[in-house]
User: What shape does this take?
Amino acid sequence: MALFVTFEGIEGSGKSTHLRLLADHLRAAGHPVVETREPGGTAAGAAIRRLLLGTDAPPLSPLSELLLYCADRTEHVSIVIRPALAAGQVVLSDRFSESTIAYQSYGRGLDLTVVRTLDAHARAGLVPHLTFLLDCPASEGLRRIAGRHASSEPGGAAPKGAAPLPLDRFERETLAFHERVRDGFRTLAAAEPTRFCVIDASAPVETIRARIAAEADRRLAKAA
Ligand code: TMP
Assistant: This one.
């Protein structure tokens, strides 16, 4: 049963963890699942991701940033997402169009009409069937990110004794930037309450996992 599901949220909201947990749940129920992400879901996308978020990423103007995210999406939609949906698979994408609107328009301040127009070209008419917004205060997301980057801390991503992982261009942004991004996501979700499922990302992992699994099961049953 083809279903296109996206996960959105600020840094440290836990969306990548919950995408993986949903993939496990759906596979256990016998659904073919494709896990993918933006940027970086294709070979060109991986190069674009390094340019945007790699350790030696160069400074970029907000417009160049927008164009790169849209180039990544153009490839991702045509090479990965559409073929998988045509083959009847469930596609789970870590970020999609709402990230562009929230980060490049609400965050960076680019004109909303310009951002929406370029995104519309990139996704070429594709709209997710279901979007989970993992929502938590920006301060909480940033606290989790800081923990992940601290070397040899319990739960930190860097192995014991290793140098801390450098922060990327968005992780280095101010709390005010991340608050604007969060506000963008919440505004987008409020405008499309049928497609969006807003999840309190401060809740325990198991509570969130069960809520997401139940909602995906409900949508799959409806689509069948
Ligand atoms: P992540 O894969 O770890 O979530 O990192 C992706 C980063 O790129 C994250 O900071 C959000 C940002 N981003 C945008 O600014 N615009 C976009 O369109 C997308 C897909 C991501």
